[in-house]
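Sample entry was shown:

___
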Amino acid sequence: MVPVTHYSIGELARMTGLSTRTIRFYSDSGVIPVAGRTAGGFRTYDFDGLARLKLVRTLRALGVDLPTAQRVLAREVSVAEVARTHAEAIDAQMRTLRLRRAVLRVVARNGEVEMVHELARLSEEERQAILDDFFEEVFGGLDLEPGFERMMRSVRVELPDDPSTEQLEAWIELANLVRDPDFRASIRRMSVRHEELRAEGADMSAPSPEKMEAFQYATAQAREALDAGIDPRAPEAAPIVARINEKWSALNQPIGPEVADWLDEFGDPRAERYWTLIATINGWENPVPDTTAERGWLADALR
């Protein structure tokens, strides 16, 4: 049996799943050339036309526009190039859609539309400018420990192109926090006190790993006390303070009322919240814990 080499539009429709109207449009557009005519004058198409039609069907299903598909058929551009370009375009669209989804979820939670949308659309440089303005107001003109100020100013907000709802919420909260006049005034007071203590000869550099370990030990002890319902002024708190003091004494820094004063002076819980938000935005694996309650317990117990 001689194989059929020419197909009618109806046969192409059955073989490709496309409508006869669509195939006729492609034929009129020159996408699939007419191979011949029947005795009745109807158009027929050959294997090449069928192959071209299947390729166009696949490209259109993947979102490739018809002019680009025609360029592929004319060999003006390769399928690989078209695929790469469209994959990149889809990536960009997906990032945009994910951002919109995150914005809508945040809006659904707090009802703020314009503010959330505007903050979400900021570029990396614009986001950092908000922090830089904050740093200038709270640190500007003060003689702070250079390493401390350098470390603070070096931290960048690295909100992903497709942030999670939690990351976007953290960025919105952080942007509002660093623009809050009361928070700025509080951090400015801490900075002024930092300058005064440094002038008095106090070591205001970043804490050593040993000091950080001692502080973490102290907050862990305070957390156990809080969980046990121990009042910081009750006699049961004394052995806890003694254990903490023993740990700190090994660093030649015994605790006492002066440490309680330090916790009060530098104890604005929003300062710790600042670091927690930065950690969430940047996706740090070890987020900064909120030790507000633990530091409050310690301050009261040390007095």
Notes: The first strand starts at residue 7 and ends at 8. Strands lie at 7-8, 36-37, 43-45. DSSP finds 15 helices and three strands in the chain. The CA atoms of residues 137 and 176 lie 15 Å apart.
